[in-house]
Amino acid sequence: MAAPKKGRRPAGGQSRPGRALALILIAMVALTGGMFWSGHTTPRLGIDLAGGTSITLKAKAEPGQESAVNETNMNTAVGIIERRVNGLGVSEAEVQTQGDENIIVNIPRGTNEKQAREQVGTTAQLYFRPVLAAMPQTAPSAETSGAPTPTPSASASASGATAGEGSATPTATASTQGRALTEALKAPSPTPTASASTSGEPKATGTPQATPTPDAATTALEQKFTALNCLDPKQRAAAGQGVKSTEPTVACGEDAPGVWSKYLLGPAEVDGKDVDDAKGVFDQQRGMWIVTMDFTDGGSKKFQSITSKLSQQTDPQNRFAIVLDGEVVSAPSVRQTLSASAEISGNFNQQSAQDLGNILSYGALPLTFQTQSVDTVTAALGGDQLEAGLIAGAIGLGLVILYLVVYYRGLSLIAILSLGVSALLTYVLMALLGPAIGFALNLPAVCGAIVAIGITADSFIVYFERIRDELREGRSLRPAVERAWPRARRTILVSDFVSFLAAAVLFIVTVGKVQGFAFTLGLTTLLDIVVVFFFTKPVMTLLARTSFFGNGHAWSGLDPKRLGAKPPLRRTRRATPVATPVDPKEA
Length: 587
Prior knowledge:
By secondary structure, the protein is of the alpha+beta class.
């Protein structure tokens, strides 16, 4: 009989469980240490457990564009609002439509909740409009005291070159305003791409659009501009609303706390769709927060066109206003042609600069939204439901352990230890995934973790039953543990693959809280494989070497007599028949 080759483990040979146990022990220590080092020792909670804010927004179309409130624009708005909130690092924010014209935004209590509430309904309609006239307005106390009127400190830059500084803005007279407005209205309304004429004055290109007569339009805008009082919050909010981007308008801008300017603005030359990226940064040279913007290829050409025209004008016609949702946030002067990028500077702090950069980066909402209600959600109801769910989970876990103890006796110790390892890894990973990817624990996620108890216990039962089958065939425990593992391993992998596939499909096709259930189910399914391969199997191999389990103690759960094991098959030699002489008399 040929001897087995060296280096190849014969069937029923013993594995090396120490290596696998060392690996999972190192992983557990590293993950637990990382959890304490990061300072996030508890999982982040969703709005149903931690409480938060629920905001209802109602879509409102611009005059003459009632058809804009449609399913496409509503879904686009949902995506933009969700990206804005997530860009602030808020976890588990839920944004979904309700009916045909409402959007519900649920923001959990925690980091940046206040900023998120302020940004969800901000339309962020950004336009670059040429300034036709500007007039500072201050409170009566400031005017009577003769205090100097500050002007917007704004600039635009390309390749690092500053094109505008905080120069004084002269007060426009009524005649100057009238001439500027008359000149603007004599020409047809320009398209967003305008070019400079040979005379240096703005000249529109494109198909002329129907406008009111110059005299009537000039008179109406002059009266509107003259009557505008930017110190009145109601007039500030109403200024520039409901005006198309291709029409001149009036707007207000805050130069300093309590100091405002009213502006007469021409048609928009560049809009927010032409901005490719924006972010709030701190300018070390000037010691102030600014917002930098990079344009798309088309936006660069438009910006180059308008700055080329404005650089040839005198103040204030050499300025362009950066208008966000009808308010002038900056009005820099231009002294050279720019195209690559621009920056907005003014009365920014870190939060306001980063907020504006976040809004501009993720785009403008296709619709105007009105806040219908802002409700504070308490965690009391969710806490009661969580308590009930945890009680149900504890009862279920207790029943599982009771069944294991009664049916498997000593083997239940391995199952309980494995469940403990799985629970520890699940908790640590949930705590780490909160700050890492924004995972937040909600009620459906808790349900997913409870369901995972059954999945994990099922893997142990499959392995234990395979071992018992081998013992019933008459094998001893140590070979039975090794021979049962390949068959049990295939069954466990197939079962966990089906569970993980279901969780992945559920996560992809659903939204909101259901994704929390699917994510937790998929995570615990992967952990089940890790625990069974690197803990349950090695521990079973080690315990099989003990006399309590190896000799089949009655309370080990592996007693051959209780299992109805067959006696071991032994080969015996056949007896050779021997011829016996026959007595002739008997024959």
